């Protein structure tokens, strides 16, 4: 198994730089005071499609051989990766086929359709999604771009940490959320490659979907079975590839409670006035639940995305106020 | 009645610059496409205390004679002005007395108390608040700093438009929300002073609290009576001072529906990944409801604040998801 190096991430960065946003690094005096440390938020919620996923998708799409570009790409993600792949493909004149469960949120369907992808709906099961995607790949020759079990995707995701560390020197700790491990693998590779052993690399994972923690602790890949967490971007489990990278590089996987995730999401909204999704709030939840580990440290936090379905709950709550 | 000039606003800017955040101007390709115009969002939601009010409060506090500084300041606002005055006073070593209704949201009480202000609670009526504030002023000698009917406050608020126009040249239109008219008066003064008749100056006001529209249209000051709007920062009515400035300078007051305010607030959250409060969303609602007026124009929008009480509705809505 070939693992990526920081050189691969630097190459990816050069490759995708014209297409991505260089997202800002934000700080909050209030949160620094509250947690007694220096926090640097790398705001991938401001990335195109509202999540870091656009980095990996763009890198993967740009690296396709011309023959494959002509046939297009396919994905069976229903989350941020689908939108990211659809936009990355559209920006490069490539056809994208996205398989989504019929039950996907209207806002997600609209986003993917808005980027010009061809959507195929299927039953809301993992099996139906994979089979449908495989059928499309066979019929059209489109290349399946996996959301995280893909070398080029991982290299793209690592560019967020690369930019953060180029901008903020001397970080003591860097924290990324862990779902399937694509962002965490890229973060590990970039941070270890840039700072060697002088930086602690931490994954933040919901306790309710703690496959990375289990795998990291036992040394054996242990996928989650039907996990339930408010951090709905982190339901997936590590692959052999992401597990290898994380096992070789991470210092810690810190699991966080649902309560801490929600509290930290609200804190980011209220104090920083930016939208972070629940999955992104896990990194601050790790700080909240491990004060000794982070005290007085300079910590980089990758805010992975900002796609929150406000309509589903906000409109109901304000009805009372809209007295014509 | 002496009205402020752009020179006064430039002086205010020099005075408060070391204390305020220079807030970013953000753009959104998606929103530009959606509304077929170029929108420049001046993000006062990122200002200290989460609202432009900190500009005016700081200017007013800095301009107090030394004798008055010793006695402190008092306000009977329960909104962003209270927090702004409390922090501006604290940063200048001045005592602040804030009168709040017992019924004020816990988060607002905590914010004001956190800035070290002395809070006096009273019955939740305008009369009780004004009487309580007057009693405090008489007893302590503290100076009442009105949230908008105050020359120095208006000059401070105008610095948001000043920064926006210094950064983005050739705006065709500038839009600010109108409540009591402090921000709108400052915006009028700055924009007319800088660009003369080449810029259109527009106030955005909830139809449900349309005293500025009525006053502007009839030429007679017509305060609202018990208005109800989701834009709870815009319930107040113009004063003689703000009405004079607005009547002399504004080109239009555009009233907006509750539905448009809420839709635009959600659009800003979803597309820009930043928190704008309902009062701030009125400026985008004005664009949404008047497409011909804004089409193909370069429009500056003052996003006045980002203080949204998410806890009151979000926590309820996610309970279902927090299955331990």
Overall number of structural domains of chain A: 2
Give the % helix of chain A.
40-55%
Oligomer: homodimer
Structural class of chain A: alpha/beta
Low-confidence stretches of chain A: 320-324
- What is the mean pLDDT of chain A? 94
Count, helices of chain A: 15
Largest interface: A-B, 32 and 32 residues
Largest sheet of chain A: 6 strands, mixed
The run of helices and strands of chain A is HEHEHHEHEHEHEHEHEHHEHHHEH
Examine the secondary-structure arrangement and name the CATH architecture of the largest domain in chain A.
3-Layer(aba) Sandwich
CATH class of the largest domain in chain A: Alpha Beta
Number of strands of chain A: 10
What strand order characterises the main sheet of chain A? 1-2-10-7-8-9
N-C termini distance of chain A: 63 Å
- What is the CATH T-level topology of the largest domain in chain A? Rossmann fold
- Roughly how many Å is the radius of gyration of chain A? 19 Å
Please tell me what the overall shape of chain A is. globular
- Percentage of residues in strands of chain A: 5-15%
Name some characteristics of this structure.
324 residues; alpha/beta; 15% strand; Rossmann fold
